[in-house]
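re: ur question from yesterday

yeah so i grabbed the chain u mentioned. its 280 aa long if i counted rite. heres the sequnce exactly as i have it in my notes:
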Amino acid sequence: MEQEIQNELETITRLTNMVIDFFVNYSFQVIGAIIIFLIGLIVARSIGKFALKLCEKNSVDVTLSLFIASTVKLLIVAMVLVICLGKFGISVAPFVAAIGAVSLSAGLALQGVFSNYGAGFTIILTRPFVVGNTITINDISGVVTEIKLAHTLLATEDGEIITIPNKHIVGEVITNSFANKVVEASVGISYSADPEVAIQVIKQSLAQFDELSQESPPQVGIEAFADSSINIAYRYWVPTDRYFEVQYQVNLAVFKALQTADIEIPFPQREVTLKNAAAE
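ran it thru and got these structure tokens back, copy pasting raw so excuse formatting
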């Protein structure tokens, strides 16, 4: 029993001596590392805020501004950690090699995710569109509501939210009509009607709608000479979030206006001639 107690006391003594030796030999390094780390955190936070304010001052996109500020802060913290480890005589080379190997494996496994982030970074830098624009990509159209590093969100008139990974945006043909979208329609009138009168009637119908954009005035004219009608085409710009609603109202107004003006809207007709069979 006394021997066991003696062994435990010796163990405690050795541990105590090790702790004392450590603080005697590395006390200044520990204190210095803690001070350097705390100062580094303060400096990293301050420089991060400064970078964010600088980006906001130069009207840089919000997402890109936050990304730059966070990256600057992380880089400074990483450098401070390297300095603190050096105070203890710890070589960071093995850690750098290990981080490199892990990063390579993670990069291969997550290359799809990283490609979205890279594409998002490109979108924010080049700004082919901004929040509030109406864009069309691969027959997908909507109003841009949010641009993130990984994906872009579009909203439709029906309240649907479309999420497009950014890698499917960069490199594709993008149609940007900004806040509005063009409506293209046509109506056929009889060859006996005066097309100039029909064009004027349609223009008056379009002028009744305040929703139509005045920056790009409506266009009305003869589109084609069909078999049984003269096709009058009309184009106008409307807010994207009311595209179908306004289009349906305009079509009804045009139809009623043509009826009121006694302008005939013909329908296809076919004449069939029957011949008597030759007498036997």
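noticed a couple things. DSSP finds six helices and eight strands in the chain. also The longest helix spans residues 2-57.
anyway ttyl
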